[in-house]
Design goal:
By secondary structure, the chain is mainly α. The protein is about 75% helix and about 5% strand. The protein contains 16 helices and 3 strands. The chain has a 3-stranded antiparallel β-sheet with strand order 2-1-3, covered by helices on one side. About 0% of the residues have low confidence.
């Protein structure tokens, strides 16, 4: 959800802006990491179903900025070029404000921090960390890779769900057509048979007649239910509730846990490679986890802050697999923890992709079988009286 914020920056200037966070605690944590002291924090009630138009596509923005820097342009010249080419007012406005701050001598990280509703705090933190080491181009490149990997994993999951969803929708539509159009036509033929119809056939015909008699009401109720379901899915709290339910299913819950851990390790790895301390990187990545995993990760972060190794802290809190724990220890010994955590994330991604491929191959024939059985039962119940009548005639 979004919050309207008034805060003091390091120069004691009052800033009024918006921040996107899971809850108020997460919002205050994000602002604290940006060096802001909160004066007031007010949630913004949202009723829109879709995302705000004109939002800056971070991957494209980062790719274009890296290309311009590689071409030899300075940061200010690169931002001028990106601002001039932008035609959408909602996107151009924050770029102009950032460019104005650069003219005043502020760093890019400080300028981006004034627009937390446009640039996520992870992107801002990556830029700020790179400014300490003078490796802005490398940090942006890592962020591009990170975002593309996250998007690729999300795309894999979405693509895997498309075909089952199409099968389910086709089955529902065919069933509604049979019940709302075909079955009522058969009911007029069987009216003379009366009570001689089998009970299952009578119930089927009565359902079909009811659907035909109240077609508009059924359509209105169905449309309202679909709209309510879509609105509910757009709410973060509803998605969290569904996630809690799915997490209780053993096979699905384990994969959801791996998906969260993959995002966590990839984010921590990117921040570590950008030059950020381990505790800060872990603290900033906590918002990626669900409420169920966040307490354990907080304990692990506190253990690392007290001097315990990352591998032991994560393993004690159950936030690793045996393979990941070994890889963390290797990363600590070699001093290459950033790269190792990204390898762990890639390992998790591959495991999730294999599981999704197997489940997809199982779900598709299962859905087709269930839909075929449902339609077959309806057809048999419609024709059963005819078979009965033919038997009596013989």
């Amino acid at each position: 959800m979004e919050f309207r914020v008034k805060a003091l920056d390091r120069e004691q200037a009052v800033l009024a802006q918006q921040v996107d966070a899971i809850d108020e605690t997460d919002a205050r944590r994000q602002l604290g990491l940006l060096g802001l002291r909160v004066i007031s924090l007010t949630p913004i009630r949202q009723t829109r179903l879709f995302a705000r138009p004109g939002k800056i596509p971070l991957v494209i923005f980062s790719q274009e900025l890296v290309s311009l820097l590689d071409a030899g342009l300075s940061l200010v010249e690169s931002m001028e070029a990106l601002t001039e080419k932008e035609e959408t007012a909602a996107v151009r406005r924050p770029l102009e404000q950032i460019l104005s701050r650069l003219y005043e001598g502020q760093t890019l990280g400080a300028a981006l921090a004034e627009h937390p509703s446009t640039f996520p705090y992870l992107f801002i933190a990556t830029v700020r960390a790179s400014e300490r080491t003078g490796s802005l181009r490398e940090a942006l490149t890592r962020f591009i890779t990170y975002q593309q990997q996250i998007d690729a994993l999300r795309k894999t999951l979405v693509n895997a769900s498309i075909y089952p969803a199409v099968l389910l929708a086709a089955g529902v539509l065919v069933t509604l057509f049979l019940m709302g159009y075909v079955v009522p036509r058969f009911s007029s033929i069987y009216e003379q048979l009366g009570s001689d119809l089998p009970l299952a056939s009578r119930l089927l015909l009565q359902w079909g007649q009811m659907l035909e008699a109240h077609t508009m009401a059924v359509i209105a109720v169905g449309g309202t239910a679909a709209a309510a379901f879509g609105y509910a899915l757009s709410r973060r709290s509803t998605r969290a509730l569904f996630g809690t339910w799915f997490a209780k299913v053993p096979a699905i819950g384990r994969q959801l846990r791996l998906y969260q851990l993959a995002r966590l390790y990839r984010t921590v790895g990117m921040l570590l490679r950008s030059g950020m301390p381990a505790v800060t990187a872990m603290t900033m990545s906590a918002g990626l986890l669900s409420e169920a995993l966040r307490p354990a990760f907080s304990k692990a972060t506190q253990s690392v802050r007290e001097g315990q190794s990352i591998a032991n802290a994560m393993e004690l809190q159950g936030l690793t697999t045996p393979v990941a724990a070994r890889m963390l220890r290797v990363g600590e010994r070699s001093g290459n923890m950033g790269e190792m955590t990204e390898r762990i994330a890639a390992f998790y991604d591959e495991e999730i992709a294999r599981w999704v491929a197997i489940v997809t191959r199982l779900i598709e024939p299962l859905f087709m079988t269930l839909i075929g059985l449902l339609i077959g039962v309806i057809v048999v119940l419609m024709y059963f009286p005819i078979f009965q009548l033919a038997g009596s005639v013989q």
